[in-house]
Amino acid sequence: MIGCPTSWRSLTMPTLLSAAAICLSDGRVLSGGARVYAEIPFLQGYHADPHDYQRYTQAGIEALFGDFAAIETGVCVGPASALGWVLIELAALLVPTQLAKKGVRFTVGWLAAAMKQCDRVLARRPDAHRIAAGLFFLGRKKGGPGIGPGPAVCSDTAP
């Protein structure tokens, strides 16, 4: 069996019934010193695709990837994006029909898109992780060799 030098997860963790089991598996199959990168939604509305089970804080992500030493953690989708998402969905709640909801989401979405430009500044603030739409974790496997070195790339988003 070939060990993987890298694991990449992009905003799919909430759709996994047992994200912890996936992270434990990464710790088992990745080679010693291998890197893992994950982007995980934090303040985002329910978005089943096909399911939506959980959200994680920055501390929760670090605990989830306990077999990995953090190289860098932070915000990948900023607070203005989180606010924009909430405003779009809140406005859609105010109208009764699905057709009207689509129109409201489109209109408010255009307004929110301009607001999201604030994330260029806000996402860099030290406390931005407290209200960010998405967080990231980049880590290196601690200790042991894993299953072994190899050229494979493990990903839950690969075709």
Give your account of this protein's structure.
The protein has about 160 residues and is an alpha/beta fold. The protein has 2 domains: about 1-75 and about 125-140, Vaccinia Virus protein VP39 (Rossmann fold, 3-Layer(aba) Sandwich), CATH 3.40.50; about 80-120, no CATH class. The chain has 5 helices and 5 strands; from the N terminus they run βαβαβαααββ. The protein has helices at about 20-30, 60-65, 80-95, 100-115, 120, and strands at about 5-10, 30-40, 70-75, 135-140, 155. It has a 5-stranded mixed beta sheet.
Number of strands: 5
Count of discrete structural domains: 2
Q: Please tell me the CATH architecture of the largest domain by its name.
A: 3-Layer(aba) Sandwich
- CATH class category of the largest domain: Alpha Beta
For this structure, the CATH topology of the largest domain is Rossmann fold
**Uncertain residue ranges:** 147-159
Rg is: 18 Å
Shape: elongated
Cα end-to-end separation = 20 Å
